[in-house]
Amino acid sequence: MSNETAEREVILSVRHVSISFDTGHKKKFVAVKDANFDIYKGETFALVGESGSGKTTLGRAILRINPCSEGEIIFEGKRISGNISREEDRNVVRNIQMIFQDPAASLNERATIEYCVSEGLYNFHLYESEADRIAKVDKALQDVGLLPEHKSRYPHEFSGGQRQRVGIARAMIMNPKFIVADEPISALDVSIRAQVLNLMNKLKAEKNLTYLFIAHDLSVVRFIADRIAVIHLGEIVEIADSETLFQVPLHPYTISLLSSVPMPDPIVERTRKHIDYDPSKLDQSGAKRELREIRPGHFVFATDSEFEGYEEKLRSMEQEAK
């Protein structure tokens, strides 16, 4: 670990976490395998991968929705996975909130916006009086760019972008320390995605929040994330800061994902070739793969021989740069 990362405060640690589900045929489907990473206070840590890669499963495990089969999750120095006391469970709910992928499905269509946003306040009685509760709802709506008079309306009366703002307000009103944002813009029109991302960045700065941003679109992740973890078939294959991952991708799966990112330049886009990920080209000796630090803060999932190849690649790139 580098001195820079050693000095930063870790708010959440995922340690050797595996998550499996019983398929009912005496077999278990392993959705996440031996995941390891730290998330630092005040950063946006992105978890990127294709559909079915296990990223949402891992996010839900942090929220204690999915149980861990192995390993543990540590939040602010305390284990929050497995059996914990009711008080500690409430502390997790209070301090870790989620912004869901589909704003329409995550809001109660029969409840007013006021109730939807107030639900956490009711559950934890985080208000002194009715006037205080309404003032907090009004402030939360204003923080996300909505008006206080919107609170008497119902979710179906809003656009997708507005509903997602309501979902963000519902999370923010709890004053959480950590937010799991599960593909928060994938269900939105392209024209308003930037608005929601800008809003999330603004609230992060104002409230000193930490995000786990789950996504499949690397172009979006580059805009919002400080560090990125790439997950493939339940395994974390590479972790690096955002710029390093885009400039010096090492794992073949990361390179394949990056080759699929659309380019705004039409000439470049026409000549660009997608690089297919071929796992058969990896070390087939059966040697154990581990997540190893190849440069300070840059980790890659590799066997000994693969790691040597990645090191050689980095050395040649550094020599070319000179």
Please characterize this protein's 3D structure.
The chain is of the alpha/beta class and 322 residues long. The chain has one domain (3-321): P-loop containing nucleotide triphosphate hydrolases (Rossmann fold, 3-Layer(aba) Sandwich), CATH 3.40.50.300. It contains 13 helices and twelve strands. The strands form two sheets. The protein has an eight-stranded mixed β-sheet, with helices on both faces. Strand 1 (10-22) and strand 2 (28-40) form a beta hairpin.
Annotate the secondary structure layout:
Blueprint: H1 3-7, E1 10-22, E2 28-40, E3 44-48, H2 55-62, E4 70-75, E5 78-79, H3 86-95, E6 96-99, H4 103-106, H5 113-124, H6 130-143, H7 160-172, E7 178-182, H8 190-207, E8 210-215, H9 218-224, E9 227-232, E10 235-241, H10 242-247, H11 252-259, H12 266-271, E11 290-295, E12 298-302, H13 304-321
Parallel strand pairs: 3-8, 3-9, 6-7, 7-8
Antiparallel strand pairs: 1-2, 1-4, 4-5, 9-10, 10-12, 11-12
